[in-house]
Each structure stands twice: as structure tokens, then as C-alpha cells.
Design brief:
Largest sheet: 7 strands, parallel
CATH class of the largest domain: Alpha Beta
Mean pLDDT: 83
Oligomer: single chain
Low-confidence stretches: 85-90
CATH superfamily of the largest domain: P-loop containing nucleotide triphosphate hydrolases
Number of helices: 11
Shape: globular
Structural class: alpha/beta
Helix content: 40-55%
Order of helices and strands: HHHEHEHEHEHEHHEHEH
Bound molecules: guanosine-5'-diphosphate, magnesium ion
Radius of gyration: 18 Å
């Protein structure tokens, strides 16, 4: 307890190592309970979650968005959760970042979050980790998570903006429809637009979403690897952010 108290003092003086240690404590139930009593319940800033099947391009897109936000001077933190391979997302992102000018950027924070086994895609107390990062001063927290049934509900509650990623020709559209995630997503993105079949998925989505009387859901076609369509996507996310 006294250890946590001291960590909090250092955290409030913007000590990055204290932040990192508090985040570790936040993943354990005992530490989390205490931290919950200390954090600001609704710090300013936004939590944007990207969800989608493995391999759809979440890490690639998160990397692109993080770079873009840093170029705009926005302080950004990334929480990469991947139940299939807990460290892949972070490693992939980490590799990208290490090679770029962002390597020692104090305005960027990246953390891989190990998730419990099975299909639960959202680590326990992820909400608390977001609160810590926002209170520390990050303006946007990007979460990468593999959507899976129950977990989608948790992500929905946690995120201010939920972005669902699909890719051409995976048959995923139906799967997402079944899981109900298509209905709760704020933005739908068809990634890998450089590959054939993206327009077909777009057309299919247009038919399923945005029916008369339904909440409008913007759909975007992007290529994370080519860096295409990102301006439009991010503009829409920022607009939603000011509305929410
Ligand atoms: N052709 C193409 N490949 C992509 C695109 N975005 C990601 N990929 C590739 O898809 C694979 C999975 O990407 P990753 O970002 O790790 O997906 P994640 O599992 O959803 O995080 C990698 O080989 C990427 O290079 C894209 O826009 N176009
Ligand atoms: Mg990934």
C-alpha cells in the first residue's frame, strides 16, 4: 500500500517508470482495487478501440494512426491486447516504432497487455489502465483487441469510439453480424483495400448498415500498409470524438 502511494506521487510528477509500474499493478486484483480509489474516474481524453479478427491489420493500422497523431503533436498511448499471441501486436508495433523517429518520443507510450487464455480478448482492468494513461496526460489511448463475443461488450463499454476492422474475402462479415459487433461499432473499416475484393465487402456492408431508421455508421476503405484512406478515417474518428 505505501509502495503504491509512493508510486502515485511519482506518477503525478509524470514519472514514466511509475506509470509503467502502476499499469502492472493494475492488472492484479489486489493492486487494482487500491488504484481504483486513487485515479480520477473520468479523466479527459478519448479511448479509441480497434477490434477485428487476427491478421486483419489491427497492429499495422494502430501503428499508422499513432504516427499520424504524434505528427499532429497529440500524446498517444497504445494498449495492444492479443489473446492468440499476446506479444505479437506489441512486438510488431514496437519494431515499427523502434525504426522510426518515434523511438525515444516521450509523447508515445506502447504496452503489450497479456490477456488470459481462451477467447477472452479484453484483459481484466483494462479500463483502469486507460484511466491511468489518460490521467498521466495521454490524450488518446488506442486499444488493439481481438473481438470475441462477450469481450466485445467489454470493449464497447470501455471505448469512447469502437472501430471494427474487416478485410476483403474472409467471410467475416457474416461472423461479425452474428456476434452483433457490426451493430455496436461506431466506425467500420475495410482494410487491405490494395487487395482485390475490397469493393465487394464495401457494397455488402453498405447493404447491411445504414438502413433507413438506423443509426448511421460510416464505412471506410483503407490500406494500412500503403497508408491510403487514413486521412478520411481519422477525420471521422475525430468528429465522433467531439460529439461523444
Ligand atoms: N496487403 C495488405 N496487407 C496488410 C495491410 N495491413 C496489414 N497487412 C498485413 O496483414 C498481416 C497482419 O497484419 P497485423 O497488423 O499484424 O494484423 P492484426 O493481427 O490484426 O494485428 C501482416 O502481414 C500485414 O503486413 C494492408 O492494408 N494491405
Ligand atoms: Mg496485432
Amino acid at each position: 500500500m505505501s509502495d503504491l502511494k509512493e508510486l502515485f506521487e511519482r506518477f503525478r510528477q509524470k514519472d514514466r517508470r511509475a506509470l509503467a509500474r502502476l499499469l502492472s499493478h493494475a492488472t492484479q486484483s489486489e493492486g487494482a482495487e487500491i488504484i481504483r480509489t486513487q485515479v480520477t474516474p473520468r479523466p479527459t481524453g478519448s479511448v479509441v478501440a480497434l477490434t477485428g479478427s487476427g491478421g486483419v491489420g489491427k497492429s499495422s493500422l494502430v501503428g499508422r494512426i499513432a504516427e499520424r497523431l504524434r505528427n499532429d503533436g497529440i500524446q498517444v498511448a497504445v494498449l495492444a491486447c492479443d489473446p492468440e499471441s499476446p506479444y505479437t501486436g506489441g512486438a510488431l508495433l514496437g519494431d515499427r516504432i523502434r525504426m522510426s523517429s518515434l523511438a525515444s518520443d516521450p509523447g508515445l507510450f506502447i504496452r503489450s497487455v497479456a490477456t488470459p487464455g481462451g477467447r477472452q480478448a479484453v484483459a481484466e482492468n483494462l479500463d483502469l489502465m486507460c484511466q491511468l494513461l489518460l490521467e498521466y496526460g495521454f490524450e488518446i489511448v488506442l486499444i488493439e483487441t481481438v473481438g470475441a463475443g462477450q469481450a466485445d461488450v467489454a470493449v464497447r463499454e470501455l471505448a469512447d469510439i469502437l472501430v471494427l476492422l474487416l478485410q476483403p474475402e474472409t467471410g467475416d462479415e457474416l461472423q461479425w453480424e452474428k456476434a452483433g459487433i457490426l451493430e455496436v461499432a461506431d466506425v467500420v473499416v475495410v482494410n487491405k483495400a490494395d487487395l482485390p475484393g475490397a469493393d465487394a465487402v464495401m457494397a455488402q456492408l453498405q447493404g447491411q448498415l445504414n438502413l433507413p431508421g438506423c443509426r448511421p455508421v460510416p464505412i471506410f476503405k483503407v490500406s494500412a500498409t500503403q497508408g491510403e484512406g487514413l486521412d478520411e478515417l481519422w477525420k471521422a474518428v475525430l468528429e465522433l470524438r467531439t460529439e461523444s
